[in-house]
Amino acid sequence: MPANRHKISYEVLNRHEALHYPPEFEVHATPEELQDFAASGYLIREQLFQGKALSRLQEATDRLDDAEGDRHRKHRPKDRSWGIILRHLMDKDPVFLELLKYPPVLSVCRAMMGPLVRLRGLTARISFPGAEVQETNWHQHMRVVSKPLPPWFSQPHAIDALIYLDDINDDTGPVCVVPGSHTWLDRHPDHQIFASIEGEKVLRVPAGSVVMIHGNLWHRAMPTLRKKRRMLILGYTPTWLRKSPHGGPPPADGLTAELLQDCDEETKELLGIGGYS
User: Fold this and answer.
1) What pTM value is reported for the model?
2) In a domain, 4, yes or no
3) Does 12 reside within a domain?
4) Which of 271, 277, 272, 270 minimizes the C-alpha distance to 110?
5) Four-residue CA torsion sign, 80, 250, 98, 244
6) Span 61-88, average pLDDT
7) What CATH number did the domain enclosing 98 receive?
C-alpha cells in the first residue's frame, strides 16, 4: 500500500439487510490528512489528473460547452457573472460518468462522512476574460442551519471536489478559502462581498489539481483576467440527504437512468437509489 494511504473498516449498526457498502476500503489519504481536512475544511491534491486523463476531461467539457454554452451565454448579466454553469454532466457524456466511483475522491468522502454516500452532482463552471467581470462572491455550496440551534440539530455535511482543468493562477482566477469556516454555525457570508476578508487563504494550483472542500466552507473565485478557466465540481453527501436542487431535474434519457437499469448495489446507492432505511 502506498505510504499516503491507509485502510478503514466500517460496520453499519442497522438491522436492515438492504444497506450495501464496502466493509473495508483503501483511503487515498493519511489519517493526519483527514484530521487536517476536518479542521481546515479543505484538502489539496495537486495534478491528480495528468496526461490523457486530464485531456479527456478537458475535451468532454469543451464538447458540452459547444453544445450548450451559447444558450447560457445569452442569459448572463452584462457587468458581472459567474461565467457559464453546465449541470448534470454524468447524464451527458460517458467520460464524466467515469468519475462516479473515482477512488481518490470517493474514498476520502467515505472516510470523512461514513460509508453510505451518494452523488450530490457533477457541474462545470467555465469563465473567460472580457469586459464582463467573471468571479464569484463569498459563498457556500450547502447551508441549512437553524438559528438558534435546536437541541437535536444535525449539521448537514457535503464534500465537493473542485477539479481544475486549467492552471489556477492570477490569469485564470485563484480560489480563496477561509480555513475552519465550515464549522461556523452562527453566521453566513454576505453574498454581496467579492473582496478579500480576514483569514482568507489564496490557492493557486496547476491544471489537473483537485481542491476538496466541505460544502459549508466559505470560498470565492477571483476574476478571470487573461485565460479561460474550466472547473468541474464533483460533490457527495451522506445517502439520506436529498440531491442538489440546482439545475432542475436531470434529463429523462440521461446516461445515469440507463446505467440504473442494470448495475450493482453500490452504483444504485451512489445515484441515490438506496443507502438509507
Assistant:
1) 0.94
2) no
3) no
4) 270
5) positive
6) 81
7) 2.60.120.620
* Single-letter code of the amino acid located at 188: H
Q: Count of domains in the chain?
A: 1
C-alpha cell at 221: 473565485
CA proximity to 109, closest of 255, 263, 239:
239
Contact 188, 139 (CB under 8 A): no
Which domain range does residue 83 map to? 21-261+265-270
pLDDT of residue 233: 98
SS3 123: strand
Instruction: Please indicate, yes or no, if residue 136 is contained in any of the structural domains.
Output: yes
The 3-state DSSP composition of the chain as helix, strand, coil percent (nearest 5) reads: 25, 25, 55
| Residue of 94, 105, 100 whose CA lies nearest to 59 | 94
* Residue 211 covered by a domain: yes
Work out the pLDDT band at 77, boundaries 50, 70, 90: low
Enclosing H/E stretch for 231: strand 229-238
The pair phi, psi for residue 66, each rounded to 5°, is -60, -35
- Judged on CB neighbours under 10 Å (0-12, 13-18, 19+), 70 is exposed
